[in-house]
Automatic annotation (TrEMBL):
Organism, as annotated: Mycolicibacterium fluoranthenivorans
Protein name as it appears in the record: 2-methylfumaryl-CoA isomerase
A GO molecular-function annotation: isomerase activity
Keyword Transferase: yes
Recorded superkingdom: Bacteria
Keyword flag Isomerase: yes
Length: 401
Protein backbone atom coordinates (compact mmCIF):
# COMPACT_ATOMS: atom_id res chain seq x y z
CA UNK A 1 0.00 0.00 0.00
CA UNK A 2 2.95 2.35 0.42
CA UNK A 3 3.08 2.92 -3.37
CA UNK A 4 -0.62 3.71 -3.65
CA UNK A 5 -1.72 7.33 -4.25
CA UNK A 6 -2.39 9.31 -1.07
CA UNK A 7 -6.09 9.54 -1.94
CA UNK A 8 -6.28 5.75 -1.56
CA UNK A 9 -4.54 5.85 1.83
CA UNK A 10 -6.62 8.15 4.07
CA UNK A 11 -5.26 6.44 7.21
CA UNK A 12 -1.60 6.79 6.22
CA UNK A 13 0.52 7.51 9.28
CA UNK A 14 -1.76 5.58 11.65
CA UNK A 15 -0.21 2.55 13.34
CA UNK A 16 -2.44 -0.16 14.78
CA UNK A 17 -1.60 -3.27 16.80
CA UNK A 18 -3.87 -6.26 16.25
CA UNK A 19 -4.06 -9.27 18.58
CA UNK A 20 -6.67 -11.56 17.12
CA UNK A 21 -7.86 -14.75 15.50
CA UNK A 22 -10.71 -15.91 13.28
CA UNK A 23 -12.87 -13.35 11.39
CA UNK A 24 -14.06 -10.13 13.04
CA UNK A 25 -10.84 -8.46 14.17
CA UNK A 26 -8.67 -9.79 11.30
CA UNK A 27 -11.25 -8.35 8.87
CA UNK A 28 -11.18 -5.04 10.74
CA UNK A 29 -7.39 -4.94 10.66
CA UNK A 30 -7.26 -5.76 6.96
CA UNK A 31 -9.87 -3.09 6.18
CA UNK A 32 -7.86 -0.49 8.11
CA UNK A 33 -4.69 -1.59 6.31
CA UNK A 34 -6.46 -1.24 2.96
CA UNK A 35 -7.29 2.32 3.99
CA UNK A 36 -3.60 3.02 4.46
CA UNK A 37 -2.95 2.29 8.13
CA UNK A 38 0.12 0.30 9.20
CA UNK A 39 -1.41 -2.72 10.88
CA UNK A 40 0.90 -4.97 12.86
CA UNK A 41 -0.67 -8.29 13.75
CA UNK A 42 0.93 -9.81 16.83
CA UNK A 43 0.55 -13.57 17.26
CA UNK A 44 1.94 -16.14 19.65
CA UNK A 45 4.98 -18.07 18.50
CA UNK A 46 3.59 -20.92 16.39
CA UNK A 47 0.52 -18.91 15.42
CA UNK A 48 -2.94 -18.27 16.81
CA UNK A 49 -5.86 -20.65 16.36
CA UNK A 50 -6.54 -19.46 12.81
CA UNK A 51 -3.04 -19.74 11.33
CA UNK A 52 -3.73 -23.17 9.80
CA UNK A 53 -7.47 -22.76 9.39
CA UNK A 54 -9.17 -24.31 6.37
CA UNK A 55 -9.31 -23.97 3.44
CA UNK A 56 -5.67 -24.93 3.00
CA UNK A 57 -3.43 -25.72 0.03
CA UNK A 58 -2.12 -29.21 -0.66
CA UNK A 59 0.94 -28.17 1.35
CA UNK A 60 -1.16 -27.18 4.35
CA UNK A 61 -0.85 -23.41 3.93
CA UNK A 62 -3.98 -21.56 5.01
CA UNK A 63 -5.81 -19.87 2.17
CA UNK A 64 -8.09 -18.49 4.87
CA UNK A 65 -5.19 -16.76 6.65
CA UNK A 66 -3.98 -15.27 3.38
CA UNK A 67 -7.46 -13.93 2.68
CA UNK A 68 -7.95 -12.00 5.92
CA UNK A 69 -4.47 -10.66 6.60
CA UNK A 70 -3.57 -8.93 3.36
CA UNK A 71 -1.36 -5.88 3.72
CA UNK A 72 -0.46 -6.41 7.39
CA UNK A 73 2.90 -6.83 9.08
CA UNK A 74 3.39 -9.90 11.27
CA UNK A 75 5.19 -10.18 14.59
CA UNK A 76 5.44 -13.45 16.54
CA UNK A 77 5.99 -13.17 20.29
CA UNK A 78 5.81 -15.55 23.25
CA UNK A 79 2.94 -13.72 24.91
CA UNK A 80 2.92 -16.08 27.88
CA UNK A 81 6.31 -14.85 28.99
CA UNK A 82 6.76 -11.66 30.97
CA UNK A 83 9.42 -10.44 28.56
CA UNK A 84 7.18 -11.12 25.57
CA UNK A 85 4.25 -9.32 27.16
CA UNK A 86 6.48 -6.35 27.88
CA UNK A 87 7.47 -6.14 24.21
CA UNK A 88 3.85 -6.22 23.07
CA UNK A 89 2.81 -3.59 25.62
CA UNK A 90 5.59 -1.33 24.37
CA UNK A 91 4.43 -1.82 20.78
CA UNK A 92 0.85 -0.93 21.73
CA UNK A 93 1.94 2.11 23.73
CA UNK A 94 4.02 3.34 20.81
CA UNK A 95 1.23 2.77 18.26
CA UNK A 96 -1.59 4.13 20.41
CA UNK A 97 -4.27 1.88 18.89
CA UNK A 98 -5.12 -1.73 19.80
CA UNK A 99 -7.80 -3.92 18.27
CA UNK A 100 -8.30 -7.37 19.76
CA UNK A 101 -10.75 -10.17 20.38
CA UNK A 102 -8.49 -11.76 22.97
CA UNK A 103 -10.57 -10.50 25.88
CA UNK A 104 -9.90 -10.67 29.59
CA UNK A 105 -6.09 -10.36 29.54
CA UNK A 106 -5.15 -7.90 32.25
CA UNK A 107 -1.73 -7.19 30.79
CA UNK A 108 -3.21 -5.68 27.64
CA UNK A 109 -6.43 -4.35 29.19
CA UNK A 110 -7.43 -0.74 28.69
CA UNK A 111 -6.64 0.21 32.29
CA UNK A 112 -3.15 -1.25 32.13
CA UNK A 113 -2.28 0.26 28.78
CA UNK A 114 -3.90 3.66 29.35
CA UNK A 115 -1.59 4.15 32.32
CA UNK A 116 1.26 4.15 29.79
CA UNK A 117 -0.56 5.85 26.91
CA UNK A 118 -3.42 8.09 28.17
CA UNK A 119 -4.74 8.78 24.67
CA UNK A 120 -4.94 5.07 23.84
CA UNK A 121 -7.65 3.82 21.50
CA UNK A 122 -8.55 0.35 22.76
CA UNK A 123 -11.18 -1.65 20.84
CA UNK A 124 -12.02 -5.04 22.30
CA UNK A 125 -14.39 -7.60 20.77
CA UNK A 126 -16.08 -10.07 23.08
CA UNK A 127 -18.54 -12.87 22.47
CA UNK A 128 -21.35 -11.63 24.68
CA UNK A 129 -22.18 -8.43 26.54
CA UNK A 130 -21.97 -10.24 29.89
CA UNK A 131 -18.39 -11.23 29.16
CA UNK A 132 -19.26 -14.78 28.18
CA UNK A 133 -17.80 -16.49 25.15
CA UNK A 134 -19.54 -16.78 21.83
CA UNK A 135 -18.83 -17.16 18.13
CA UNK A 136 -20.93 -16.38 15.09
CA UNK A 137 -22.56 -19.79 14.92
CA UNK A 138 -23.47 -19.98 18.61
CA UNK A 139 -24.73 -16.40 18.69
CA UNK A 140 -26.81 -17.06 15.58
CA UNK A 141 -28.28 -20.21 17.11
CA UNK A 142 -29.64 -18.20 20.03
CA UNK A 143 -31.06 -15.43 17.88
CA UNK A 144 -33.66 -17.21 15.77
CA UNK A 145 -32.31 -17.18 12.23
CA UNK A 146 -31.68 -20.95 11.93
CA UNK A 147 -35.34 -21.56 12.76
CA UNK A 148 -36.57 -19.45 9.84
CA UNK A 149 -33.92 -20.59 7.34
CA UNK A 150 -34.66 -23.48 5.01
CA UNK A 151 -37.69 -24.94 3.24
CA UNK A 152 -41.22 -24.44 4.48
CA UNK A 153 -42.37 -27.21 6.81
CA UNK A 154 -38.89 -28.21 8.00
CA UNK A 155 -38.77 -28.76 11.76
CA UNK A 156 -35.00 -28.64 12.40
CA UNK A 157 -32.61 -25.65 12.52
CA UNK A 158 -30.65 -24.73 9.39
CA UNK A 159 -27.37 -22.84 9.80
CA UNK A 160 -26.18 -20.61 6.99
CA UNK A 161 -22.53 -20.72 5.93
CA UNK A 162 -21.87 -16.96 5.93
CA UNK A 163 -20.53 -15.69 9.31
CA UNK A 164 -22.62 -12.55 8.96
CA UNK A 165 -22.19 -11.30 12.52
CA UNK A 166 -18.41 -11.67 12.37
CA UNK A 167 -18.36 -9.66 9.16
CA UNK A 168 -20.62 -6.94 10.58
CA UNK A 169 -18.62 -6.90 13.81
CA UNK A 170 -15.37 -6.49 11.89
CA UNK A 171 -16.73 -3.53 9.96
CA UNK A 172 -18.10 -1.95 13.16
CA UNK A 173 -14.61 -2.35 14.61
CA UNK A 174 -13.00 -0.55 11.70
CA UNK A 175 -15.62 2.19 12.01
CA UNK A 176 -14.97 2.47 15.74
CA UNK A 177 -11.24 2.97 15.14
CA UNK A 178 -11.75 5.67 12.51
CA UNK A 179 -14.22 7.60 14.67
CA UNK A 180 -11.98 7.26 17.73
CA UNK A 181 -9.05 8.61 15.71
CA UNK A 182 -11.16 11.62 14.75
CA UNK A 183 -12.15 12.10 18.39
CA UNK A 184 -8.51 11.91 19.49
CA UNK A 185 -7.43 14.40 16.85
CA UNK A 186 -10.11 16.83 18.06
CA UNK A 187 -9.75 16.37 21.83
CA UNK A 188 -6.42 14.68 22.48
CA UNK A 189 -8.29 11.93 24.32
CA UNK A 190 -8.37 8.21 23.62
CA UNK A 191 -11.35 5.89 23.88
CA UNK A 192 -12.20 2.51 25.32
CA UNK A 193 -14.57 0.70 22.95
CA UNK A 194 -16.26 -2.65 23.63
CA UNK A 195 -18.13 -4.47 20.86
CA UNK A 196 -19.87 -7.71 21.88
CA UNK A 197 -20.52 -9.94 18.88
CA UNK A 198 -23.90 -10.89 20.30
CA UNK A 199 -24.95 -7.23 20.49
CA UNK A 200 -23.99 -6.67 16.87
CA UNK A 201 -26.26 -9.58 15.93
CA UNK A 202 -29.08 -8.42 18.22
CA UNK A 203 -28.90 -4.84 16.95
CA UNK A 204 -29.02 -6.02 13.35
CA UNK A 205 -31.96 -8.33 14.02
CA UNK A 206 -33.75 -5.49 15.78
CA UNK A 207 -32.99 -2.93 13.08
CA UNK A 208 -34.26 -5.30 10.40
CA UNK A 209 -37.47 -5.84 12.43
CA UNK A 210 -37.02 -9.56 13.16
CA UNK A 211 -37.20 -8.90 16.91
CA UNK A 212 -39.57 -5.93 16.75
CA UNK A 213 -42.10 -7.95 14.77
CA UNK A 214 -42.44 -10.36 17.67
CA UNK A 215 -42.65 -7.57 20.25
CA UNK A 216 -45.33 -5.60 18.38
CA UNK A 217 -47.34 -8.22 16.49
CA UNK A 218 -46.70 -11.25 18.68
CA UNK A 219 -45.85 -13.33 15.64
CA UNK A 220 -42.56 -15.01 14.72
CA UNK A 221 -41.19 -14.94 11.19
CA UNK A 222 -42.30 -18.02 9.21
CA UNK A 223 -40.02 -20.36 7.32
CA UNK A 224 -40.63 -19.69 3.62
CA UNK A 225 -37.76 -21.35 1.76
CA UNK A 226 -36.36 -19.21 -1.06
CA UNK A 227 -39.25 -16.77 -1.08
CA UNK A 228 -38.68 -13.22 0.19
CA UNK A 229 -40.68 -12.13 3.20
CA UNK A 230 -43.11 -9.30 2.48
CA UNK A 231 -42.18 -9.10 -1.22
CA UNK A 232 -42.49 -11.21 -4.32
CA UNK A 233 -39.31 -13.19 -4.83
CA UNK A 234 -39.00 -16.79 -5.89
CA UNK A 235 -36.68 -19.44 -7.32
CA UNK A 236 -37.52 -20.85 -10.74
CA UNK A 237 -35.92 -23.62 -12.81
CA UNK A 238 -35.35 -23.53 -16.56
CA UNK A 239 -36.06 -26.29 -19.06
CA UNK A 240 -32.38 -27.30 -18.96
CA UNK A 241 -32.21 -27.38 -15.17
CA UNK A 242 -30.69 -23.98 -14.33
CA UNK A 243 -32.01 -22.26 -11.21
CA UNK A 244 -32.84 -18.54 -11.19
CA UNK A 245 -33.70 -16.14 -8.38
CA UNK A 246 -36.33 -13.63 -9.45
CA UNK A 247 -37.16 -10.57 -7.35
CA UNK A 248 -39.94 -8.04 -8.00
CA UNK A 249 -39.64 -5.32 -5.37
CA UNK A 250 -41.62 -2.61 -7.14
CA UNK A 251 -44.77 -2.37 -9.19
CA UNK A 252 -42.71 -1.94 -12.34
CA UNK A 253 -40.68 -5.07 -11.60
CA UNK A 254 -43.87 -7.05 -11.10
CA UNK A 255 -45.53 -5.72 -14.28
CA UNK A 256 -42.44 -6.63 -16.28
CA UNK A 257 -42.44 -10.13 -14.79
CA UNK A 258 -46.08 -10.64 -15.74
CA UNK A 259 -45.42 -9.30 -19.25
CA UNK A 260 -42.25 -11.26 -20.01
CA UNK A 261 -43.90 -14.51 -18.93
CA UNK A 262 -47.06 -13.73 -20.95
CA UNK A 263 -49.25 -13.50 -17.87
CA UNK A 264 -50.44 -9.90 -17.77
CA UNK A 265 -54.09 -10.85 -18.30
CA UNK A 266 -53.83 -13.94 -16.09
CA UNK A 267 -52.39 -11.89 -13.22
CA UNK A 268 -55.21 -9.35 -13.56
CA UNK A 269 -57.80 -12.15 -13.55
CA UNK A 270 -56.18 -13.77 -10.52
CA UNK A 271 -56.23 -10.47 -8.65
CA UNK A 272 -59.89 -9.97 -9.46
CA UNK A 273 -60.85 -13.48 -8.35
CA UNK A 274 -58.94 -13.12 -5.07
CA UNK A 275 -59.96 -9.52 -4.45
CA UNK A 276 -56.26 -8.68 -4.31
CA UNK A 277 -54.62 -5.50 -5.54
CA UNK A 278 -51.24 -6.67 -6.84
CA UNK A 279 -49.89 -3.14 -6.89
CA UNK A 280 -49.54 -3.73 -3.13
CA UNK A 281 -46.33 -5.62 -2.30
CA UNK A 282 -47.96 -7.27 0.72
CA UNK A 283 -50.69 -8.71 -1.49
CA UNK A 284 -48.09 -10.05 -3.89
CA UNK A 285 -46.39 -11.74 -0.95
CA UNK A 286 -49.59 -13.21 0.52
CA UNK A 287 -50.58 -14.74 -2.80
CA UNK A 288 -47.06 -15.72 -3.86
CA UNK A 289 -47.90 -19.39 -4.36
CA UNK A 290 -50.73 -18.60 -6.77
CA UNK A 291 -48.57 -16.12 -8.67
CA UNK A 292 -45.71 -18.59 -8.84
CA UNK A 293 -48.13 -21.12 -10.33
CA UNK A 294 -48.75 -18.66 -13.17
CA UNK A 295 -45.09 -17.84 -13.82
CA UNK A 296 -43.56 -21.32 -13.48
CA UNK A 297 -44.66 -22.76 -16.88
CA UNK A 298 -42.82 -20.00 -18.76
CA UNK A 299 -39.56 -20.70 -16.94
CA UNK A 300 -40.00 -24.45 -17.35
CA UNK A 301 -40.51 -24.06 -21.11
CA UNK A 302 -37.37 -21.99 -21.77
CA UNK A 303 -33.66 -22.67 -21.57
CA UNK A 304 -31.35 -20.75 -19.26
CA UNK A 305 -29.96 -18.82 -22.22
CA UNK A 306 -33.44 -17.85 -23.41
CA UNK A 307 -34.50 -16.79 -19.90
CA UNK A 308 -31.36 -14.70 -19.42
CA UNK A 309 -31.87 -12.95 -22.75
CA UNK A 310 -35.52 -12.20 -22.01
CA UNK A 311 -34.94 -10.94 -18.49
CA UNK A 312 -32.04 -8.73 -19.56
CA UNK A 313 -34.46 -6.50 -21.44
CA UNK A 314 -36.63 -5.85 -18.37
CA UNK A 315 -36.40 -4.06 -15.03
CA UNK A 316 -36.74 -7.37 -13.15
CA UNK A 317 -34.09 -8.12 -10.54
CA UNK A 318 -32.69 -11.54 -11.31
CA UNK A 319 -29.64 -13.76 -11.23
CA UNK A 320 -28.82 -17.31 -12.11
CA UNK A 321 -27.68 -19.44 -9.19
CA UNK A 322 -23.96 -20.08 -9.56
CA UNK A 323 -21.30 -22.00 -7.68
CA UNK A 324 -18.22 -20.33 -6.24
CA UNK A 325 -16.31 -21.85 -9.16
CA UNK A 326 -18.73 -20.27 -11.62
CA UNK A 327 -18.45 -16.88 -9.90
CA UNK A 328 -14.64 -17.01 -9.75
CA UNK A 329 -14.45 -17.67 -13.50
CA UNK A 330 -17.12 -15.13 -14.40
CA UNK A 331 -16.80 -11.49 -15.45
CA UNK A 332 -17.91 -10.18 -12.05
CA UNK A 333 -14.46 -11.29 -10.89
CA UNK A 334 -12.30 -11.48 -14.02
CA UNK A 335 -13.44 -8.11 -15.44
CA UNK A 336 -13.88 -6.28 -12.15
CA UNK A 337 -11.30 -3.60 -11.17
CA UNK A 338 -11.86 -4.60 -7.54
CA UNK A 339 -9.76 -7.69 -8.31
CA UNK A 340 -6.07 -7.62 -9.21
CA UNK A 341 -3.59 -10.42 -9.69
CA UNK A 342 -1.90 -11.17 -6.37
CA UNK A 343 1.27 -13.23 -6.10
CA UNK A 344 0.77 -14.58 -2.60
CA UNK A 345 3.84 -16.37 -1.20
CA UNK A 346 3.13 -19.97 -0.14
CA UNK A 347 -0.30 -19.88 -1.81
CA UNK A 348 0.12 -18.95 -5.47
CA UNK A 349 -1.07 -16.36 -7.97
CA UNK A 350 -4.76 -15.51 -8.09
CA UNK A 351 -7.25 -12.66 -8.47
CA UNK A 352 -7.72 -11.07 -5.05
CA UNK A 353 -10.12 -8.32 -4.00
CA UNK A 354 -8.86 -5.07 -2.58
CA UNK A 355 -11.00 -2.69 -0.54
CA UNK A 356 -14.54 -2.83 -2.04
CA UNK A 357 -14.82 0.95 -1.87
CA UNK A 358 -13.80 3.05 -4.87
CA UNK A 359 -12.00 6.20 -3.73
CA UNK A 360 -11.91 8.85 -6.45
CA UNK A 361 -12.77 6.09 -8.90
CA UNK A 362 -10.05 3.63 -7.86
CA UNK A 363 -10.05 0.61 -5.58
CA UNK A 364 -7.14 0.25 -3.14
CA UNK A 365 -5.54 -2.99 -4.43
CA UNK A 366 -4.82 -6.19 -2.57
CA UNK A 367 -1.41 -6.58 -0.94
CA UNK A 368 0.05 -10.01 -0.02
CA UNK A 369 -0.43 -11.42 3.46
CA UNK A 370 2.66 -12.08 5.57
CA UNK A 371 3.81 -15.38 6.94
CA UNK A 372 3.86 -15.66 10.70
CA UNK A 373 6.63 -13.48 12.12
CA UNK A 374 7.78 -12.10 8.76
CA UNK A 375 8.37 -8.64 10.21
CA UNK A 376 9.34 -9.39 13.80
CA UNK A 377 12.93 -8.19 13.60
CA UNK A 378 12.10 -5.18 11.45
CA UNK A 379 9.22 -4.01 13.65
CA UNK A 380 11.23 -4.39 16.85
CA UNK A 381 14.09 -2.43 15.32
CA UNK A 382 12.08 0.29 13.61
CA UNK A 383 9.34 0.72 16.20
CA UNK A 384 11.07 0.03 19.51
CA UNK A 385 14.62 0.86 18.44
CA UNK A 386 16.08 -2.53 19.40
CA UNK A 387 19.55 -3.29 18.12
CA UNK A 388 20.22 -6.35 15.99
CA UNK A 389 22.08 -8.18 18.76
CA UNK A 390 19.19 -7.58 21.18
CA UNK A 391 16.69 -8.98 18.68
CA UNK A 392 19.01 -11.97 18.19
CA UNK A 393 19.06 -12.61 21.95
CA UNK A 394 15.26 -12.46 22.11
CA UNK A 395 15.02 -14.88 19.21
CA UNK A 396 17.54 -17.25 20.78
CA UNK A 397 15.55 -17.20 24.01
CA UNK A 398 12.33 -18.00 22.18
CA UNK A 399 10.72 -14.71 23.20
CA UNK A 400 10.17 -13.79 19.56
CA UNK A 401 10.22 -15.71 16.30
Amino acid sequence: MTDAPEALRPLAGVRIIEISSFVAVPLAGMTLAQLGAEVIRVDPVGGAADYRRWPVTDDGESIYWAGLNKGKRSVAVDMRSEQGQDLVVRLIAEAGVLITNVAGRQWHSYDTLAAMRPDLIHVEISGRADGGTGVDYTVNAGLGFPLVTGPEGLDVPVNHVLPAWDVACGLYTALAVTTALRHRDATGQGQRVSIPLENVALATAGNLSFLTEVMINGTDRPRIGNSIYGQYGQQFTSADGAAFMIVALTGRHFRDLAEVTGNTKAVAALGESLGADFTDEGRRYRHRDALTGLFTPWFSAHTAEEISAALSGTSILWERYRSFADAAAGPSVTDNPLFTTLDQPRIGSYLAPGLPVAIDGSYPPAVPSPALGDHTAQVLADTLGLEADEVARLTQAGTVA
